[in-house]
Amino acid sequence: MTVTHLFPRRVAKGAPPLSPLLRLLILTQLAFNVGFFAVLPFLAEHLGDAIGMAGWLVGFVLGLRTFSQQGLFVVGGALADRYGVRPVVLAGCALRIAGFGWLGHAERTWTVVGAVLLIGLAAALFSPAVESEVARQAVVHEEAGGGPRTRVLALFTVAGQAGAFVGPLLGALLLAVDFRTVCLAGAGVFVLVLAGHAWLLPQHIPGRSRIQVRGGVGPLLRNRGFLALCCAYGAYLLAYNQLYLALPAEVERAAASQAPLAWLFALSSLLVVTAQLPVTRWAGERIGLRRSMAAGLALIAAGFAVVAAALPAGRTGTAGLLPATGFVLLLTLGQMLVVPAARAWVPDLAEEGRLGLYTGALSSVSGLIVLLGSAATGTLLDAGLPPAVPWLLLAAVPAAAVALLPRRPRPRQR
């Protein structure tokens, strides 16, 4: 995909082009994911094989990484509301560099936990700052006649998945040396990101007003529609997290190797890069935000059910990898429906001037769900149950989340 493809000059006839700030923020997401996904897909195997962690502990550490990231998004979002995007993004990049460097040298459980927490904290700073500003700029672009905000947010997703496509391939190549080299390469990517943003990211973004950190949490906790959206999104994120926990175990069972894992990640990312914009356009024209999320969650549940249905046959080799491939495809299709819709919904539910806080809270609540759910999933995978049972239980989570969605979005005039 070329830059011209990623950033079309017009989203509709006579519509304004994307602003330079939006282009920078979208490319930021691409760079973030190249560095991040060069490391993360190979972390579970490293923790289990090289460090010797039990399955439940591997699941807990992966959940802890997600929680330290997603769970603290609310802090990063509030800081972005108060201090602006630039200082929060730069601080997060510096912490990510330190975290990857530490993880590459960590050999004991407590050092791994410390490095993982630092890596998650870094994203808890830069991600909500970038995501909330992209959402705000998407609303501005929509009001200027640039088309639905979901298209801008879909471009953001496409850029992230393009990075997620390149990252695992880079990591798989470097893994031939060792895991430490993979971590140092990821840190190197963030060194470049830090330098680029110190140069290009504006000190002050027009139209963004800074507010005090205090206040805003009470109304948020009383916002039942927003909390329902958080829980449904948390169910999606728990399902997505199984790419790093349940999927590696299934790939190992079917292929006696982790080698196909990088290609499955690449398949997922390539599907998003090529199909996200048409899917978002279709969903925006035909089904709206709530139905888009409901359909996405149903597809994700179907992906888990496909693996559960195939496991009793116990097939291995190429045929044994087909259910895992089906899972990745259905999960990715569900993701393409859920993520832009959820992000587009938040500005309609957030208080004025608190978009960073609400964007962070969306990830914090879902991060708590992932922390608890990942430890439970690790226990299930190690419990000696029939192989299909954990996958059936995981299928029930996104299926049940459909009922949690708010009945309809309630747009606010800005």
UniProtKB/TrEMBL annotation:
<feature type="transmembrane region" description="Helical">
    <location>
        <begin position="355"/>
        <end position="376"/>
    </location>
</feature>
<dbReference type="InterPro" id="IPR011701">
    <property type="entry name" value="MFS"/>
</dbReference>
<keyword id="KW-1003">Cell membrane</keyword>
<keyword id="KW-0813">Transport</keyword>
<protein>
    <submittedName>
        <fullName>MFS family permease</fullName>
    </submittedName>
</protein>
<feature type="transmembrane region" description="Helical">
    <location>
        <begin position="21"/>
        <end position="44"/>
    </location>
</feature>
<feature type="transmembrane region" description="Helical">
    <location>
        <begin position="152"/>
        <end position="173"/>
    </location>
</feature>
<dbReference type="InterPro" id="IPR036259">
    <property type="entry name" value="MFS_trans_sf"/>
</dbReference>
<feature type="domain" description="Major facilitator superfamily (MFS) profile">
    <location>
        <begin position="21"/>
        <end position="414"/>
    </location>
</feature>
<dbReference type="InterPro" id="IPR020846">
    <property type="entry name" value="MFS_dom"/>
</dbReference>
<feature type="transmembrane region" description="Helical">
    <location>
        <begin position="50"/>
        <end position="67"/>
    </location>
</feature>
<dbReference type="Pfam" id="PF07690">
    <property type="entry name" value="MFS_1"/>
</dbReference>
<feature type="transmembrane region" description="Helical">
    <location>
        <begin position="320"/>
        <end position="343"/>
    </location>
</feature>
<feature type="transmembrane region" description="Helical">
    <location>
        <begin position="179"/>
        <end position="200"/>
    </location>
</feature>
<keyword id="KW-0812">Transmembrane</keyword>
<feature type="transmembrane region" description="Helical">
    <location>
        <begin position="88"/>
        <end position="104"/>
    </location>
</feature>
<feature type="transmembrane region" description="Helical">
    <location>
        <begin position="292"/>
        <end position="314"/>
    </location>
</feature>
<feature type="transmembrane region" description="Helical">
    <location>
        <begin position="388"/>
        <end position="405"/>
    </location>
</feature>
<dbReference type="InterPro" id="IPR050171">
    <property type="entry name" value="MFS_Transporters"/>
</dbReference>
<feature type="transmembrane region" description="Helical">
    <location>
        <begin position="110"/>
        <end position="131"/>
    </location>
</feature>
<keyword id="KW-0472">Membrane</keyword>
<feature type="transmembrane region" description="Helical">
    <location>
        <begin position="260"/>
        <end position="280"/>
    </location>
</feature>
<keyword id="KW-1133">Transmembrane helix</keyword>
<feature type="transmembrane region" description="Helical">
    <location>
        <begin position="221"/>
        <end position="240"/>
    </location>
</feature>
